[in-house]
Amino acid sequence: MKKINLSTLNVVNQLKQENEDFEWYPTTNEIIEAMYWDIKGKDSNGSDYISFLDIGAGNGKIFNKFKDICESVTTGKENHSGHTSKCLHIDKYMVIEKSQILINQMPSEAFVVGTDFFENTLIDKQAKVIFCNPPYSEYSKWTERIITEANSEYIYLVIPQRWDKQENILASLKKRDASFSIVGTYSFEDSEDRKARAIVDLIKIDLTMNAYHSRQIAVDPFDLWFNENFKIKAAKDNQSHFEEAKKEAEARKVKIDNCLVEGIDLVSSLVEIYNNELSSLIATYSKLSELDAVLLEELNVKVSNVKAALKEKIQNLKSLYWKEIFNNLTDITKRLTTKTRDTLLKFLTSNTNIDFTTGNIRSLVIWVIKNANKYYNEQMISVYDNFTTGEGIKFYKSNKRFNDDTWRYTRSDKGNLEKYALDYRIVLHGHRSEVYSWQDEDLKFSPSQLEYLQDIIVIAKNLGFTVNDDVIHTFEIKEKNKAYFTCSKKRILKVGQKTNVGVIEEVYLHTSRVNPNNERTQLIDGVIHVYDAKNKNDEVQYKINGDYLHWDYPKIDNDIFSTVKGYKNGNVHFRATC
Fold it and tell me: What's the CA gap between 346 and 337, in Å, rounded?
């Protein structure tokens, strides 16, 4: 008899302590392997890539096991009789999981598209394969809903053998014109994770049909949902759906801005507004079912048009509210370079079909944090590689530099060069394809040129440096522009010191500490101390050229992060100060 996996036992104990043990019985390795090879197929050659929705995913064991099987058959360590030795890859792993403890243990590739199963729709979550090992106390209800709403080609379910006696399950199969087969029958009594006295079937449900020499879903889940919920007595046709007006989206955005009441958190506000708007949308379309069929026909209202319009409106509604959340992830995105940020946000915005709930928002933000961290080192290497040019590197030993002609023949083979480092002076080649409509803007750095500077500042900040990037948008080409470190509030420069705006004439320290002479002002070591009982924090002020400047405005040479010069041909020259 196999012993229970101790790590699983620890997790189960933790789940029970946190009231998150929602009948989590991890799918056995035997069942997962059977499903892997059934998806792969005996006659399939080459490597296959599939999208996969794991409902009640636990700790993501299926993804990890698929990966292990693929690696084992690739290296020849494992021989499955009758099967090819090619791989099955999950290139998009979507999960629905309620327990945050288990979500935290998932592989970084797992993308949480929902938390509570009954708060999330499946219609808009498209995948090649859907899998579920549902809680056995509710398996019938879960199975019926998955079959009815699944937007996939195949469903694999691990459910008790008595499932074929459930009328609701058989009815849902009939509605979808689905066929099924039993891949195998298994027991949890010898489970390597958590044992149970349960005999289950692994069933495969095929939702497809042959059409035009390809496999297509036989009954669209949205069509099924629409027809059951909206009994509209109008002619059915295949004409195009109603277009959503741009003004409607703009009006909705204004509504969001106006409803964000100060003191209420953003997430709660947006979820409440979203639910109200979604309910209003459904109610509006429901009223169409009360209208007379003759009247609808006279108005040329077609069921297919109404259906398509509702589907698009729901998708657009979700997209708008998710993008509102994404726009507020600045604490994360500001630490990413231009390329990395665009990649992450593009992926996020392409998954706006996730239901807009508080739990889903929390899980998605956690996913972003988990996955953003892995980008930091990668993007540092990427930026370093971009900054490695013939004019910008030197050898460690000889200090010999490249020139353009030499670099032309070596840049494609950087990995074979001797050890080298970035020089203090770097030239990046670019372009200025942007067209400006007024002359003053033509003097500014173009967006593509600013990206060079913004990326290197992001890397510097991630390494712990503080760089002021507020003024880089004012940089002008052919000028020696300077990007500065942010200086400390405690720093006090001296009278006569040269700064970027002139020589310091007087230095003031505004403080709530009483001066030794009991006067409001006193000169101490060249600094005029100004007593102000209301000033709880010391503040430094400088007089330069007759003007009184804030502590962080004057800069000295040691504050320079880089001197930057741009040119009309798109090139940007950097020079470090140390």
Answer: 14
By the 8 A CB rule, do 525 and 463 touch?
no
Which token pair is 510? 């505004």
Rounded to whole angstroms, the Cα distance separating 75 from 44 reads 18
Alpha helices in 43-202 (DSSP H): 61-75, 100-103, 139-149, 167-175
According to DSSP, residue 519 is labeled S
- Least confident span in 56-60, 113-117, 238-242, 429-433: 238-242
Alpha-carbon torsion (453, 455, 456, 457), positive or negative: positive
Q: Report in angstroms the alpha-carbon separations of 103 from 21, 353, 364, 523.
A: 13, 20, 11, 61
| Whether the Cβ atoms of residue 312 and residue 305 lie closer than 8 Å to each other | no
Backbone dihedral region for residue 178 (phi beyond 0: left; psi -120 to 50: alpha; all else: beta): beta
Above pLDDT 90, what percent of the chain? 20
- CA nearest neighbour of 468 among 541, 552, 543: 552
Nearest residue to 386 (alpha-carbon basis) of 342, 346, 340, 418: 340
Q: How many alpha carbons lie under 13 Å from residue 410 in its C-beta half-sphere? A: 18
For residue range 218-251, list pLDDT tens digits in order.
777 877 777 776 655 554 544 434 444 456 556 6
Helices (H), 287-357: 293-298, 303-326, 330-333, 338-349
What integer pLDDT is reported at residue 1 of this predicted model?
35
- Let me know: does 548 contact 542? Beta carbons within 8 Å: yes
pLDDT band per the 50, 70, 90 thresholds, residue 396: low
pTM (two decimals): 0.57
**Under 8 Å between Cβ of 491 and 538:** no
Asked if residue 63 lies in contact with residue 109, where contact means CB atoms within 8 angstroms, the answer is: yes
> Has residue 392 got a pLDDT over 70?
no
The pLDDT assigned to 488 comes to 84
What is the Cα–Cα distance from 219 to 228, expressed in whole angstroms?
13
Rounded Cα distance between 318 and 348, Å, is 13
Domains identified in the chain and CATH numbers? 6-222 (3.40.50.150), 232-375 (no CATH), 488-554 (no CATH)
R_g of the chain computed on alpha carbons: 32
Calpha distance 238→304 (Å, rounded): 6
Element (H, E) at 50: strand 48-55
Most confident stretch, 178-192, 215-229, 400-414: 178-192
Q: What are phi and psi of 289, to 5 degrees?
A: -70, -15
| pLDDT per position as a tens digit, 155-165 | 999 999 889 88
**Residues 6 or more apart in contact with residue 170 via CB below 8 angstroms:** 164
> In the 3-class helix/strand/coil scheme, how is 405-423 assigned residue by residue?
HHHCCCHHHHHHCCCEEEC
Beta-ladder partners of 155: 130, 205
396 Cβ neighbours under 8 A, 6+ residues apart? 418, 419, 420, 421
Average pLDDT, whole number, for the chain? 78
CA gap 561, 475 in Å, rounded = 15
Instruction: List Cα–Cα distances, 163 to 54, 160, 169, 203, in angstroms.
Output: 20, 6, 7, 10
Total Cβ atoms within 10 A of residue 152: 25
